[in-house]
Write a structure and sequence with these properties.
Length: 194
Amino acid sequence: MQPPKRALIAVVMGVAGSGKTTIGIALAQRLGWRFQEGDALHPPENVAKMRAGIPLDDADRAPWLRAVAAKIDEWRERGEAGVITCSALKRRYRDIVIGDRPGVHLIYLTASPALIAERLAGRRGHFMPASLLDSQLAALEPPGPDENPLTVAADAAVNSIVERIAASLVRDEAGDGGASTKDGVEIGGAMATS
């Protein structure tokens, strides 16, 4: 009997409107991996607060972050690869969600505040109002090099972004570096340094 293949998990992070869901779904489809919308794991109390335009605090986020981490652990225990979205705005949040779990990679989507505000203004049916963008930007602690993020400018075409992320993750799965490179990989809209 062959040992189970190592599970790879991509945590797609960024502020509201950075493209986490769009990129996450497309990436999961491209790779044939499972997908979980992290926002669906928020307790109802959090959704109600955000819908009312009230920013979440650390205590509000704690059960949600544990639920995201539990989903990651579930996939890892079953040997399944997956993509999960999570704003993961602060380092301590990423420590809960990713910690020292092998095979879990951080994909950090960046975009200008103006582009994000434009996306949020056009978004319909989501409980996170555009009015909370400033609080997210204020809370954001961009990942440091020691977190080995794959930093992606989310202002390019979705297919281009997804292909670059997928190539990095596939290289990692093959043991060729990829998304978990020690130097951290940055991918811009028109250039890739990986």
